[in-house]
Amino acid sequence: MRFRSLISLLFLLFITTSTYARFVAVQPSSTGLISDGIDGGNLRSESIIKTVVSAPPAEEKEEACEQTYGFMPCTKTALGNVFLILVYGFLMFTAATYLSAGSELLLEILGPGIVGGLFLPMLGALPDAMLIMVSGLSGDATTAQSQVSVGMGLLAGSTVMLLTVIWGTCTVVGKCDLHDSVAVNNQDTKGFHLKDSGVTVDIWTSYAARIMAISVIPFVIVQLPQMLSSTSGRHLSVLVALILSVSMLISYCVYQVFQPWIQRRRLAFAKHKHVISGILKHLKQHALGRLLDDEGQPDEHVIRKLFETIDANKDGHLSAAELKALIIGISFEDIDFDKDDAVGKLLQDFDKTLDEQVDQEEFVRGIKHWLLQAMGASGHSGPDAGPRTMKFLDTFHTQTKREHALLGDNENGENDEESGEVADPKWVTIKAALLLLLGAAIAAAFADPLVDTVNNFSAATGIPSFFISFIALPLATNSSEAVSAIIFASRKKIRTASLTFSELCGGVTMNNILCLSVFLAIVYVRGLTWNFSSEVLVILIVCLVMGSFASFRTTYPLWTCFIAYSLYPLSLGLVYILDYWFGWS
Fold this sequence. Notes:
The protein has 19 helices and eight strands. It has helices at 2-15, 78-110, 114-137, 141-173, 203-214, 217-227, 234-286, 300-310, 320-328, 339-350, 360-378, 389-406, 425-461, 465-471, 473-477, 479-489, 494-525, 533-551, 560-580; strands at 33-35, 48-50, 176-179, 182-183, 197-200, 317-318, 358-359, 555-557. It is elongated. This is EF-hand domain-containing protein. Residues 1-21 form the signal peptide.
């Protein structure tokens, strides 16, 4: 259905491309009559036209609009350009939708890693990159300088829209009840309570927010000459910012490739800490709460007695089977793990002689190390720690459970998005490739006409092209991503909220490095002037405010959506005031 609509729209677009008419020969006449061009121009009564108004002077004739590619439709009227912006915007939205659908199919076949790290982020930013590129490549340097503000408007508008309107909306639709500052999956009984309702994300979302905040560094570099009120070195600063931006793009892609492996390692470590916490609590119950002596140090005498309790065959060693029996006998809540793998990690911690068993001395050293680690992590130490053994172990246990949850473990039925084996991998691969090619082709074909139309609308209405591209173009290039994020957030789970906000941070990061790299390359190669101080300031404010906020907390109460929403009109107003009141641009 979508493909039929696209074909119909393209057909309508092309049949309205040009209008033909016959020129009327104008000859001097004292009667005020002109020939209609029939009968050789003789002024016969049946072939004359009464002139109502005189022809305008040659210098007042309206300049004809220039057709993109020589055949695309164009107009000088405001209403006509609105229609063309809607048409081209829909086509760019369609391109983004095809690219997104093709990327998801490709991900099903090849999985994360190379595809998720390299191709998906770049394909998501492709429509924006295309529009930015054509805005600076059109015509001569003077024309490019005037049109490049469309690219900057799109770059700033996409970043601001994702971090304000879309971020706030995802917070509203994804809100759940907050219990102990953590969202409860699929429970939304608090309504729109500003403090007791909100979303919780995993720790990887915080990392994504920090990367997003770091990605604004090239903006600062390219802006340094203006900040220092220097007219020299501007071309050099563009080159340095370009090199840094490309380097950050490569680094980010490498990180994305290895991020699933890093996440698995972090999750395995968190599970091991959870096992340590469970064993310490179990040993504490059998030691009657006296694992520490009166000086707050591990009590070796009590630990040796615990060893004798665990050593079932009384041979002075704990075998792998005895350690596994210990783990099985402990009730681990809200965690599923491989028992044999947990035994292997325990042997790594305790067995220093590498004989695949733990003697009493190794057990004492290992438990002492665990206790000191738990005391340090929970903040309880000193000579009075003995009476608080239960408290510091409970604190350590709570911390390990929270750390495990924040890492986003999805082995307990949380992974609704995972599907089974792909039914026909060959066909799915072909379909993904066709969708990607079609999306890229549409984006490449209609990016230039859309930029020209924005400039024509700006000329017809007197509205600066920056504000048109800031508001309208992101709706076309990011709408599919925005709708997908909102639908995903509405599932009201920590996992889906984490993926939603991570994707938003990732999209902004790609804007700040990939799209900016394209923009800086055009400015440097064509020798254009970098004069976007107010736009850069807006990007810095929004990215740093939302990035700092999301970097150091994993729960977003409902009141935080008002911060996000308020940044959008603030950004528009700030650019207008700085540019048209203070003359920054």
